[in-house]
Amino acid sequence: MVKGAGSYVKSKESETTTPVSRHRFLIHNKEDHVGVATTPIEEDEQVIGVYMEDNSEVNIRANKAIPLGHKISLVELDAEQPIIKYGIQIGITTCALHVGDYVHTHNIKTARW
Length: 113
Prior knowledge:
Shape: globular
Largest sheet: 6 strands, mixed
Number of helices: 0
Helix content: under 10%
Protein name: SAF domain-containing protein
InterPro entries: SAF_UxaA/GarD
Mean pLDDT: 85
CATH class: Mainly Beta
Organism: Lentibacillus populi
Number of strands: 11
């Protein structure tokens, strides 16, 4: 039997029930400040992220709803600080960021221009 995220799978071989965790965001590099939502994330939802380098996981509560493909903050950052994704700077924070914050154009300035 398989249910939604955070549910259980019954193994036919051992007839035991094992918890199944389903990640909701990916982190490209261990030095990244943000992860990318692989499904829409709801406000106050506790979600699991997976580091692509080694499959390790992090568990974070989302402070706001985060749309598919958008970023969630993994770290605390002050305003005017570099923000890292893919191991490189992608922008500068325009305000303080907290773990679990929705990160997008309303709180970062792109490094492209």
